[in-house]
Amino acid sequence: MIEAFTDVVPSFFGTLNRGPMTLTIFLHTVIILPMFFLYYSEKKKQKQGDHED
Q1: Global pTM?
Q2: Which residue in 2, 26, 5, 27 sits closest to 15, CA to CA?
Q3: What angle (nearest 5°) sits at the alpha carbon of residue 15, between those of residues 14 and 16?
Q4: Can you tell me the distance from the alpha carbon of 29 to that of 12, in angstroms, rounded to the nearest whole number?
Q5: pLDDT by residue (tens digit) across 6-29?
Q6: What spatial distance separates the first Cα and last Cα of the chain, rounded to whole Å?
C-alpha cells in the first residue's frame, strides 16, 4: 500500500496525493477537528455569559 515516493520536486501536496485516504485524513485533521474545538469552546463561553447576567 505504501511505496517509496519519488518526484521531481518532493512536495507536501505530492505526498498527500499518494492515496485516497491521505488527503481525507489530512483535511479532517486540519479543518474539521479545529471546527469541533471552536464550536465547543464558543458554546462554553456562551453558557458562562448566560450565567453572569
Answers
A1: 0.50
A2: 5
A3: 90
A4: 15
A5: 667 777 777 777 777 888 888 888
A6: 57
